[in-house]
Amino acid sequence: MRILLAEDDTEIAAFVERGLSEIGHTVTRVADGEDALHIGATESFDVIVLDRMLPQIEGLDVLRRLRAASVRTPVLVLTAKGGVADRVDGLDAGADDYLVKPFAMAELIARLNALARRPPINEVVTRLEVGDIALDVMRREVTRAGRLVHLQPREFQLLELLMRNAGKIVTRTMFLEEVWGFHFDPQTNIVESHLSRMRTKLRDGFAGDPVETIRGAGYRVRADG
Amino acid sequence: MASLRTSAAYRIAFTYAAALAAAILMLGIAVYFAADAEFRHQRDERIAAELSDLAQEQGGTTGLSEEIAERERGRTTESFGYALFDAAGRRIAGRMDTTRPAPGFSMIVFRDPAEGPDRARAKALDLPDGGRLVVAVDSEAVEAIDATILELFGIAFAVVLLVGLAGALLLGRYLRQRLGVISRTANAIIGGELDKRMPVSAYGDEFDSVALALNAMLERIAGLMENLRQVSSDVAHDLRTPLVRLRGQLEQVGKVDGAAERALEQGDALLALFGSILRISEVEGGGLEQSFTRVDLSGLVDDVGDSFLPALSDSGHHFEWRAERGIAVCGNRELLAQAVANLLDNARVHTPAGTRVTLTLSGHATKAEILVEDDGPGVASAELPVLLRRFYRGEASRTTPGNGLGLSLVAAVAAAHGGAVETDDGQPGLRVTVTIPRID
Hints:
Number of domains of chain B: 3
Order of helices and strands of chain A: EHEHEHEHEHEEEEHEHHEE
Radius of gyration of chain B: 49 Å
Number of helices of chain A: 8
Order of helices and strands of chain B: HHHEEEEEHHHHEHEEHEEHEE
Oligomer: heterodimer
CATH class of the largest domain in chain B: Alpha Beta
CATH architecture of the largest domain in chain B: 2-Layer Sandwich
CATH superfamily of the largest domain in chain A: Response regulator
Largest interface: A-B, 24 and 33 residues
C-alpha cells in the first residue's frame, strides 16, 4: 500500500519507514504539517499516519483541513499524549484510529492493515464466511462446517473482529478497544483467556484451529480458513 | 487621606451618605412648599370669612364703624386689621393706616404705629353705599412659620450629613479592615507562607463566604502542587531502579542469550509505568468532569466481572460477582472500568490459587458501593492505611509483578468522582471498598 508518514522526529520516522518498507509498503515521508497537508491533499494514499505534534501546522489541524478538503483517506494519529481527553480530540478531528507512542511496530502494522481497504461504512456486512466457518451477524450464530457452535456474546465479538480482518493480524489492544471499549491494558490478560475459550469451542470435534497466534503481534484468522 | 479617593469601601459609604442627605433635602423642599401653600390658603379663607361676616353687619356706615371698633378692641388671638373707605377713598373707620386697595385679594403695605411700614394680605369688598371694606392679616405670621420650617430642615439636613459622614467613615473603615485581612493574607501567601489561610469570622457573612471559597481554592492548589511534587519525587526515586536494570540488560546484549528480549520487556515495563503515572496525574489534575456522563454502574460491573471471569478461573481463583440492578453514577465509564479492573488485577496477582475473590456492587441512599474482597493472606494491619500510596508495595508482594500504582489510580478515580476508597482487613483477606455518589 501507499502510506503517507508525517513525523518530525527523524529517528522515529526512519524506524517506521524501514518497518513498513520491509513488508512491501511504499512510504512517503514528510516532516512538517505544511508538507503533510500539501502532499496529503494532492497525492493519493491508502492510509495516512499523522503525528499529532508537527511543526508549522499541528497534526490535528492538518487532519481537519484534509477532511474539510474532502480527503477521505483513513488516518491513524500517532501521539505522545495518551490522556482521556486527548483521544476524544483526535477522533473529533476525524481520525480513524489513534495510537499512543511508544508503540510496537507490529501494533502499527496491524492497525494500518485493518484501516486500509476497510469496507465503506455504509456497506453493512451481515454474514461473514472464512473457510468452513460462517458467522451470521444478525442472528448471532456461528457455524463450522454447517454445525452450530455456541459462543458467549463476547467470544462471538472476538471472532467477528477476527473474521472481518481475515488474513490480517488483530492485536490485543485492538481487541480491548473494539470488543471491550477499554483504552487501557489491564494487567490481567482478559483477551487471551476469552480467546482461548472461543478457540476451544471452535476446535471441538474438528481438525485444526482456525485462529493463529502470531507471537509478539496478535492473532489472525487465515483468509483461506 | 489620598486613600479616600482610591478606596471603594469609602466611596460606597460616602455615596450612601450623600444619597441620604439628598433625600432629606428633597423632603425638606417638598414639605416647605406644601406647608407654605396651605398656610397661605387658610389665611386667605380666614380673611374672606371675617370680611363677609363684617359685611353682614346692618346699620350702615355707622354700624359698621362701631362693629370694626368693637372688633379692634376685643381682638384676641387673630390680629386682623380693618379699614373702611368712603366712596371718595378716604378712610373713615378702622385703625389700619393704608391706602385704598383694589377689590379682591392683594398684598398691601400699611403703617404699623410701632414698626413702620409693614406688609399684609388684604381682601377688599365694595359696599352697596359705595364704600369699600378692607380686612387684612399681617404677613409676618406665615413668614415666621416658613422660617421655622426652613430652620428645622436645615438642622435636620446638617445632622444627617454629619451622621452620614461619620457612618461612612466607620463603614468604610470596617470594609477596609475586613478586606485588608484578606489582602494581607494573600500577600503573605505570595511571599511564600503557603500554608496561610484566610481567617473566617464567626458572623458567617459575605466576607466569610469569600474567605471560605478562597481557602477551598488554596487547598485545591496546594493539593495539585503536592501532587506535582510527589510525581517529581516518584520519577526521581522509583524510575531509577528500572532504568538501572534496563541499562544492565542493554550492556549484556550480544553477550548473554535473551538479553535483548529482556531489555525490550524492561523498556515496555518502564513505559507502562510512565503511562500509569501520567494517567494518575491526569485523573488527579481534574478537568475530566467535561467527559462525565451518566454511567450504568450495574452494567459496567457485569461487564468487567464477565471479562475477568475466565482469566481468574485460569489462575485458579474462585471468582463471583453480584451487581445490584439500576445503579448509576455520573462519571467517566472508561476510568471507572479501569478502577474495577485494577481491583481485580490486584486480587489476582496478590493471592494464591484457590482464593475466593468476590466483586459486589450495592446501592445505598446516596452512594454506590463497589466492594472487592478476597479470603487470601491479606495485608498486615499496619500496611492497610498506606496501600493507596503511590509506588507502595506490601512487604509480601516485593516479588510479584506490578508497580504499586494500581490502587493509587483507584483512589484517584474515586476522588475524581467525588467518592473514596477504604481498605479493611477482611479477616481473612483484604477488603477494598470504593464509594461513589449515585444518581437516579
